[in-house]
Write a structure and sequence with these properties.
588 residues, mainly alpha, three-stranded antiparallel beta sheet, 23 helices
C-alpha cells in the first residue's frame, strides 16, 4: 500500500489532468486519450490500492464534466415526466385525491377507517391537484397555474366527513394553498398579477387551518392530536385512529405553515398554537441524554416509542427548527436546532470522526434509545436522505457530502432507494420505494452549494432510473420491490410536488425560483415559504409564547465548514472514499 502523502500527490496530479480534460474535452479526443491512458497506468501500477480499484477513469472523466446540452435534455425529460403524471391525473383521477397509474383511475379515502396508510393523506380534496400547483409555476406554465387556481376554487371543499392526519394535511394541503397564494400575489415569481384573483387560496388556507386547530384546542398539553375529522373535529373515542399517539414530526413540523398563515392574515392564533406545541415538546427531552423519542402520548405526556433518530416520524422536526429560524428570525429556533444536533452527534452519530477522515465505516446516524443512547436497530430509512439538505442549510457542507454519498450508493445498488436498508445485512428491510424526494432535494441543494457537476450526474441517474422503472401508460407507480422493480398502483402526490420539482430546478439554474432562492425556503413538502422581512413583522409577533431555549447554543456550529484544500476539486469526495462507502453498503 502506498502511504497517504504519495496517495494525495497522485490524486492532485490526477485532478490536474481532470481539470485540463474538462477544459479540452469538447475539442480534443487526443487529450481525452492521454488522460485515460495516464489513469490506466496508475491503476495497473497500484492494483492493491483502493484509490485505483474504484475506477478513477469513470469517477473523474465522466463525473467531472456535464455539458450544457445534457442539462437541456434532462430539463426537458423531467418536464415531460411531470406532464405525463400530471395530465394523467387530470384525465383519469381528478377530482379524486390520487392517481392509480396501473389501472388508470382515481382513488380517494378508503372506506375502512383503520386504513390510516391511505386515509391519513387522502381527504377527498383533490390532493394531487393542490399539491402540484406550485410546480406548474416552477415550470413557468402560468396559464395552467391559473387554471389550477380556478379548479381549486371551484372543486375543493373541506366540509367533509373524513378523517385525516394533521401533519400530512398541513404540509401537503395547507402548505400548497399558502404557496399558491404567495405565487399568485407576488410578481417576483413570474405569475402575478392574476386577473380576478381574490385571495381564494388564502381563504381556503384559513378555513383548513381553522378546522385543524381543533387538534390543538382539544388537547390539554397544547400538543395536537394526530388526526381529526374535517367536519366533526377530534374523535377521542375512535380507538381505530389511535387518537392520542403523535410522532415527533407530527407535533413539531407545523410552524412554517401556521406561522406563515399568521403573517398573511394577522391572526396570531395559528402561530401561537404551533409554538405552544413546540414548547411542550421541547420540555419532553430525556433528562439524561436530552434526546427526543419517536412517538408520544399527547395527553399523558410520556414517550410511547423511545427510538431516537433522524428518520421516519422524526426527520422534519429538526428541519423545521432550522427553517423556522431562517423564516422568522427568532434565535430560539437556532438555539434549539443547534442543541438538538449537538446531542444527536453525541449519541446517534457513528463511524468516521469527520467526513474526510479515512475510515472503514462511514458516518452514519443510527437509531438509539433516547434514555441511554444505546443502539436499537441496524437499519436506516429513506427519509434520512433529507439530512444532507438540512446540513447544507446549516452550513455543514462537508458532512452533507458524506451523508449524501451514503444514500446515493444505496441508490446505485438498486436504481432506487428502499424504504429501510439494513446496514448489518446490507439488504433492504422494507423493499418499496414510493418515488420519494429526499435524496433529490439533497442532491439539488448540494449542487447549488458546491456547483460540482457530480450532482448533476446524480440527478441524471435518478431521473432516468425513475423514468425507466416506474413509468406506466398513465403515470408513475410506486416501486413495490426495489429488487424486482414490480410496481404498486399508486402515485403519491409528493412525486409531482417535490421529486420532479427539485429535479427540474437542478437542471434549470436560470429558473426564477433559483434566482430568488435567498428570499424563501422550501417547506418539507417542497412548497414556497417566504422569509419574512424584519421590518414587516407586525405587532402580533411580539406576544409569542416563550420557548425557553438555551441561548448559549445560538453561537455554535454557525460557520460554514471549510473543505480541506486537497479536496478542492470537481468531485465532492475523493474516489477512494466514495469507493469505501459503496463497498460498505455492498454495492462494490
Amino acid at each position: 500500500m502506498i502511504d497517504e502523502k504519495l496517495r494525495y500527490a497522485i490524486m492532485m496530479l490526477t485532478n490536474l489532468f481532470a481539470s485540463f480534460y474538462i477544459f479540452y474535452s469538447s475539442n480534443s479526443d487526443v487529450f481525452s486519450h492521454v488522460y485515460r491512458e495516464f489513469v490506466a497506468k496508475q491503476k495497473s501500477s497500484h492494483q492493491e490500492d483502493l484509490f485505483y480499484t474504484s475506477n478513477l477513469t469513470t469517477l473523474y472523466a465522466d463525473y467531472s464534466y456535464f455539458p450544457a446540452s445534457e442539462k437541456f435534455r434532462l430539463r426537458n425529460l423531467v418536464k415531460e415526466m411531470f406532464y405525463h403524471g400530471y395530465e394523467s391525473y387530470i384525465k383519469y383521477a381528478f377530482p379524486q385525491d390520487e392517481l392509480n397509474p396501473l389501472n388508470c383511475s382515481g382513488r380517494g379515502p378508503d372506506a375502512d377507517r383503520a386504513n390510516i396508510n391511505i386515509n391519513d393523506v387522502l381527504g377527498d380534496y383533490a390532493l394531487t391537484l393542490v399539491d402540484a400547483t406550485d410546480t406548474l409555476a416552477v415550470l413557468n406554465n402560468r396559464s395552467e397555474f391559473i387554471e389550477n387556481i380556478r379548479r381549486i376554487s371551484q372543486e375543493v371543499s373541506f366540509d367533509k366527513d373524513v378523517n385525516v392526519q394533521v401533519f400530512e394535511t398541513t404540509i401537503r394541503v395547507l402548505g400548497a394553498l399558502i404557496s399558491a397564494h404567495i405565487i399568485a400575489t407576488d410578481p417576483q415569481y413570474g405569475v402575478a398579477p392574476i386577473e380576478d384573483y381574490n385571495n381564494e387560496m388564502l381563504d381556503l388556507s384559513r378555513e383548513l387551518a381553522t378546522r385543524l386547530m381543533t387538534a390543538f384546542t382539544s388537547s390539554r398539553s397544547h400538543m395536537p392530536y394526530p388526526r381529526i375529522n374535517l367536519r366533526r373535529g377530534v374523535l377521542l373515542n375512535d380507538h381505530l385512529l389511535r387518537p392520542r399517539e403523535n410522532c415527533l414530526a407530527g407535533v413539531g413540523t407545523l410552524l412554517l405553515e401556521f406561522g406563515t398563515l399568521t403573517s398573511l392574515t394577522g391572526d396570531p392564533t395559528f402561530e401561537n398554537a404551533a409554538r405552544s406545541a413546540l414548547k411542550t415538546l421541547w420540555g419532553m427531552r430525556d433528562n439524561n441524554t436530552h434526546l427526543f423519542g419517536n412517538s408520544i402520548d399527547v395527553e399523558d405526556l410520556y414517550w410511547k416509542d423511545v427510538t431516537s433518530g433522524i428518520g421516519a416520524g422524526m426527520d422534519s422536526f429538526y428541519e423545521y427548527l432550522l427553517k423556522s429560524y431562517i423564516v422568522f428570525h427568532d434565535t430560539d429556533f437556532l438555539a434549539m436546532f443547534n442543541e438538538a444536533m449537538y446531542n444527536i452527534n453525541i449519541y446517534n452519530r457513528r463511524g468516521a470522526s469527520s467526513c474526510f477522515t479515512n475510515s472503514d465505516v462511514p458516518i452514519i446516524f443510527r437509531n438509539v434509545d433516547m434514555r441511554d443512547g444505546k443502539l436499537i436497530n441496524n437499519w436506516i430509512d429513506s427519509l434520512q436522505a433529507s439530512l444532507p439538505a438540512v446540513l447544507v442549510l446549516s452550513g455543514n457542507v462537508e458532512e452533507a457530502i458524506c451523508q449524501h454519498a451514503l444514500y446515493f450508493s444505496i441508490w446505485q445498488k438498486y436504481s432506487s432507494l428502499p424504504e429501510r436498508f439494513n446496514l448489518h445485512l446490507r439488504l433492504p428491510d422494507i423493499n418499496f420505494f414510493p418515488l420519494r424526494p429526499e435524496l433529490v432535494e439533497s442532491t439539488f441543494l448540494l449542487y447549488m452549494a458546491t456547483k460540482s457537476p457530480f450532482y448533476l450526474h446524480v440527478g441524471r441517474i435518478i431521473a432516468e432510473d425513475i423514468n425507466k422503472y416506474a413509468r406506466t401508460e398513465c403515470g408513475f407507480g410506486t416501486i413495490n420491490d426495489v429488487r424486482t422493480k414490480t410496481l404498486e398502483d399508486r402515485m403519491e402526490s409528493f412525486f409531482l410536488s417535490e421529486t420532479l420539482k427539485y429535479l427540474y430546478l437542478l437542471f434549470d439554474e436560470e429558473n426564477i425560483f433559483n434566482q430568488r432562492s435567498s428570499e424563501f425556503v422550501f417547506s418539507t413538502e417542497g412548497h414556497i415559504i417566504p422569509i419574512l422581512k424584519k421590518k414587516d413583522m407586525v405587532s402580533f409577533f411580539t406576544n409569542r409564547p416563550s420557548l425557553q431555549a438555551n441561548q448559549a447554543f445560538v453561537g455554535i456550529n454557525n460557520l460554514c465548514d471549510s473543505v480541506p484544500f486537497h479536496f478542492h476539486h470537481s468531485m465532492p469526495l475523493p474516489p477512494h472514499m466514495l469507493y469505501e462507502i459503496e463497498r460498505f453498503i455492498g454495492f462494490r
